[in-house]
C-alpha cells in the first residue's frame, strides 16, 4: 500500500470517528420556520385566501341582498359544484402533468348521448346513461393513449378532441332532433326511478320541510320551503372531492400521481407505471365531464350542442387558482375546490351587486393572473435551497 | 474462484449498427470492493454501465452475476438481482418530500380501518430520516421537499435509497461530477460506508483525484476497449492519470503553454 493510500484510509477513519463522537441530536442547520412560512408552502393557501377575499368583498357589496340567505347560497353552491366536479378530475390530471382540453366538448357530447337514444331510438334512459359513461371514459382512455403513444403534448391531442367532440355533438343533435337542442328528456328522467335518484333534483327534502315548518328557513306562501333540499350535484361534488383528495394525499396511487407529474422519467426509473397512471387520470377526467353532462341534462330536461362551452378553461382556472402547477407535480384537490367556489361566488354574486355582470370575466382573468404569479413564486421557493 | 466475483463481464462487446461502443471488455467486481471505472468522454463508460444495469444487452460476450450467466431484458430485472444504478439525474422529484421520494414506486402501506390501503407516512418519514442519518445526512424534516437539499445531499439520498432497497451492487454514474469539494468528500465517505456494509460499488468517474483515495481497483476504458484492471497496490495515482487519455495531453498542453512545445 502506498503512503497516499494509508493517509487516505486514516482520514476516512478519523472522519468516521469524529462523526461517531459527535452524534448530532440537534443539527445546527435546523432553522426555525415560522408557522406563516409553513402555511405559505401549502398549495391551497392562495385559493383559501382568495375565497375569503371574495366573501368579504360580496359581504360588503351584496351583504343584504339575499346572496347569503339559504336560497342564495344554494344558487352559487350549485355553480361551484358543477365546476368543482370538473376541477377535481382536471386537478389530478394536471398534477400528473397533463391537460385535457376536450372536457368542455365532452359535456355537450355526453348530453346528446344520454338524450338521443331514449328520445329517438327507444332505449331506456338507464341504458343511455351507462352508454354515455362508457363512451366518454373510452374517449378519455383514447386521449391518454394517444398522448402517451405519440409523446405529443396533451394540449394538442386534446385540442383535436375538443373540436371533434363539439362537431360530433352538433352532427348528432341536428341529425336526430333536427335542432341543436334535444328537448323533452326531463319526463324520461321522471320515469326512471334509479337514474332519477342518482342525478335529478335534490335530496333531504323532508329535513328542509321540517326546518321550514319550524320557521328555521323561509317558506313559500304555499308552505313549501324555499330550498327543497340539497341538489344532487353538490353531493356528487363533495363525494368526488373527498375520494380524490384522499387518494391523492394518502394512497400509493396518489404518490404515483405526484411522481409522474414531478418527473416522468424519474418515475419510470423508480418503477412507477407512468402510462397506467396517466391513462387512468384521463379516464377519470372524462368521467367527471360525463357526470357534469348527465347532471345538466337531468336538471334542464334537455341536451344542447353548446353545453359545456369553455368549461375546460374554467376548470383549468379553478385548478390553477387552487395552487396546482401548470407543469405538474404539485397541487391539491382542496385548492381546486376552493377555486371552484370562487367561480360560483363571483359568477352568481355579481348579479346581486350593482356591478355590471359583464365584469365577471375580467375579474376571473385577473384572479387567474394573480394565482399564476403566486404559484410561480411558491414553486421557485420550493425548488430552491432557501 | 469465480465465486469471489459478484459481477463479471467476460469479453463483452456492444455494437450499435456500425458503431463499436464496447470491444471485448472484461470487468470483474469482487464482493465488497469499490471498483473504479475511469475513462474520458466517449470511452464507453455509459454503454458499459447501461449494459450492467440491464438497459442494453451485450452483443457478444458473457455477463455473470454471482457466477451465474444472466441476460437482463430490463433494468427492473437487474434491480431484482440487487444491481442498483444511480444515474446522474438521480431519479428524484424536487417538488416532493424526502420521504415520498425515498419510497417512490415502493411505497410502504398499511390498512386504514382494516380495509383501505393507505401510505404509511409515519413509517416512511421515520425510515427515510433514519436511513439518511446512518449515511451521515441529517435531514431537518423528512417532509421537506428534495428541492431544498443540496446536490451532495440529493446524491446521498439516491444512494441511501438504493442501499435500503437491498442493493448488493451499486453502480454510481459520475456521482461527484456536479459537486463541490466538500460535497464530493461526503459522497466518497458514503461510498466507503456502503463498502463497510459489504456492498460492492462500481464508481464511474473521470476524476482520478476522487477515484484514487476510495477505490480498491481500477478499470480504464479508452475508445471502447479496456486498458486493463489494476488493483490499487499495483498502480500509483500518477500512472492512472497517465493512462487516461487526458494525462499526457494535459502535460503536453502545459508544456506548450510554457513555451516548451516540441
UniProtKB/TrEMBL annotation, chain B:
<dbReference type="InterPro" id="IPR027417">
    <property type="entry name" value="P-loop_NTPase"/>
</dbReference>
<keyword id="KW-0547">Nucleotide-binding</keyword>
<dbReference type="InterPro" id="IPR050107">
    <property type="entry name" value="ABC_carbohydrate_import_ATPase"/>
</dbReference>
<keyword id="KW-0067">ATP-binding</keyword>
<feature type="domain" description="ABC transporter">
    <location>
        <begin position="7"/>
        <end position="248"/>
    </location>
</feature>
<dbReference type="Pfam" id="PF00005">
    <property type="entry name" value="ABC_tran"/>
</dbReference>
<protein>
    <submittedName>
        <fullName>ABC transporter ATP-binding protein</fullName>
    </submittedName>
</protein>
<dbReference type="GO" id="GO:0005524">
    <property type="term" value="F:ATP binding"/>
</dbReference>
<dbReference type="InterPro" id="IPR003593">
    <property type="entry name" value="AAA+_ATPase"/>
</dbReference>
<dbReference type="InterPro" id="IPR017871">
    <property type="entry name" value="ABC_transporter-like_CS"/>
</dbReference>
<dbReference type="InterPro" id="IPR003439">
    <property type="entry name" value="ABC_transporter-like_ATP-bd"/>
</dbReference>
<dbReference type="GO" id="GO:0016887">
    <property type="term" value="F:ATP hydrolysis activity"/>
</dbReference>
